[in-house]
Specification:
- With about 270 residues, this protein is an alpha/beta fold.
- The chain has a single domain, classed as Ribonuclease Z/Hydroxyacylglutathione hydrolase-like (Metallo-beta-lactamase, Chain A, 4-Layer Sandwich), CATH 3.60.15.10.
- The chain is built from six helices and 19 strands.
- It has a seven-stranded mixed beta sheet. A seven-stranded mixed beta sheet has the order 9-10-13-14-15-16-18.
- A hairpin with a 2-residue loop joins strand 2 and strand 3.
Amino acid sequence: MSNADAQVQGSDPFRVAFGGHSTVLIDIDGVRVLTDPLFRSYLLHLQRHAPPIELEEYTRADLLLISHSHLDHLDRRSLKLLPKDIKVIVPNDTVNLMRGLGFKDVIGVSAGQEVEAHGLTVHATDAVHRGKRMPWHRHAETLGFLARGSQSFYFAGDTDLFAEMEHFGPDLDLALLPVWGWGPKLGEGHLDPGRAAEAVELIRPKIAVPIHWGGYLPATMAKRRPDLLTNPPREFKRLVEKLGVTTRVELIEPGSSADLKRYGAAS
């Protein structure tokens, strides 16, 4: 994992490493928070096109957040690489699945509930995203997460725009917002660059980092449409800047990281 940005001397960093898709590692108050880990080279018909990451960095997390149980957000093969004593926060309908995978400290939540974990307050938010949880063919419960310590971040998971987002700001340090997916178009329940920019206008975070892009596409599509791997976050950045809001868009390439304290997120 590349980390060209130096850490702030004499204090805990507020660092974000982007592994591609919805896999993010956030260092906050000395706690390493991992979201929706997806590490494999192939997932069904999808091929990973993001650069390789240093798995040792991502698998040494203290807290795991799973937004929902769709296969590209809850991947059993990737989860097997994590220590089974890690604290896990998941939607209520996913608790038994995680315990079945050997995780010992699993907390189930629904939207509106809060959990204290490693000194952080983690609030489960709604997420407007529906779909069946394969292979059980039941609808999956979907969440986002707001985490607060000396800094704060919102991990949206998979969601469309919803009005309650405006209550997440304006003192939020960081919003991790999905801007695309793994195909040429998006179905319902997703943010594209335009709607993600609208989310920024609602939330007004100090920093926005686009996620859910650049990771996976069908192999043949990547050859025909390489723009799908690079354009969505740049279009998002352009649209946010056009809004004239004070939010700074930090574009982190898959496999890279940035220490956000240097941008005043923790001021």
